[in-house]
């Protein structure tokens, strides 16, 4: 017990635990700012605001998942984005391109792919198809996407 705490008539300072919590929060913020310095440079960009000033932005950092019911009645969970789940050091594993969410709809005669690729025009999307695989990619100044898909069966590219 500190000397000044012994002289207090009603016991120790009642907010000493609060002071320790505040110090812990400050340490945590300092650690987070150190980690932010390790973010890949290609994810940091400057944006000019309407008033003429510039602002640094990090991102996009995208992670998500989609749950659908497969033809066998079982749920199919698919991840998408540019960060993978369970990364111990996510700033090292962030990619500058995102993985779009793609649904595969197949019938007796054909296979259709429906891709969610926000922020790009149709002519900016590159699709490469062979008998077994489809590659979807976008490489523009503002957006980058990439996805490789194995097709459910052999197809004739058209």
Specify the structural class: alpha+beta
Shape: elongated
CATH top level of the largest domain?
Mainly Beta
Query: CATH fold name of the largest domain, please?
Result: Immunoglobulin-like
Strand content: 25-35%
* CATH architectural name of the largest domain: Sandwich
Are there runs of 5+ residues with pLDDT below 50, and where?
none
Describe the structure.
The chain has 158 residues and is α+β, with helices and mostly antiparallel strands. It has 2 domains: 3-56, no CATH class; 57-150, Immunoglobulin-like, CATH 2.60.40.790. 18% of the residues lie in helices and 34% in strands. The chain is built from 3 helices and 9 strands; from the N terminus they run ααββββαβββββ. The chain has helices at residues 3-6, 16-36, 90-93, and strands at 44-48, 54-58, 63-69, 75-81, 101-106, 111-116, 126-129, 133-139, 144-150. A 3-stranded antiparallel sheet has the order 7-8-9, with no helix packed on it. A two-stranded antiparallel ribbon has the order 1-2. Strands 3-4 form a two-stranded antiparallel ribbon. It is elongated, with a radius of gyration of 25 Å. It starts with a helix and ends in an 8-residue tail after the last strand. The mean pLDDT is 78.
